[in-house]
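Re: the 208-residue chain
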Amino acid sequence: MGRRNERLRWQLASGLLKVFHLEQLTNRYSRRTVMAGFSLINGTLSIALVSFIALVTQEAFIFPSLGATAFILFHVPLAEPASPRNTFCGHLIGALMGLFSLHIFGLQDQASAFLHGVDLPRVGASALSLGLTGCLMVLFRVVHPPAGATALIVSLGLMPDPAQLPVLMAGVCLLLAHAYCMNRLSGIPYPVWSATKSTPSTGAVSSP
């Protein structure tokens, strides 16, 4: 499984080098160096794209858990957690459970934990949001580990307004669109929505 993922990452990196007529780099540098450079470029471009749109619109398109998502989308693109279905649904569940937990503990209008500090209601909200997110992702078979961070971002008060949810999910969609284009350009059959059953699921908890 690990070797297969490494071959896929190499195919992704070398495929893009061919697209941009930079194949000579594979002869000059080691495979690890090329793949590290590929991660550097794609991670930078993907987050820069989302951040630039956030800058132009002054909306919260960018949030911390997208960094972990970007790494998964380009490091193990055919793994089940990297599929658009898991990525989109996972973040949606995380955000909704974060909002739900804020409501349960009466924290909708409170300052974030980073400004007000952590009290018992905030402890309850963060714990409940993460627990519910993990539970629902497993039940619905849409495991995407970075979504746990999204649940905490919301329940800790960084994005407490339900009106921010469409913007948050738009940021996820922008990242997925970039991943689709880059993976397909390199010849990787990145799925339109759901990973195939034969796809490796490294990083995910297999479900019966």
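Confidence is low (pLDDT under 50) at residues 199-208.
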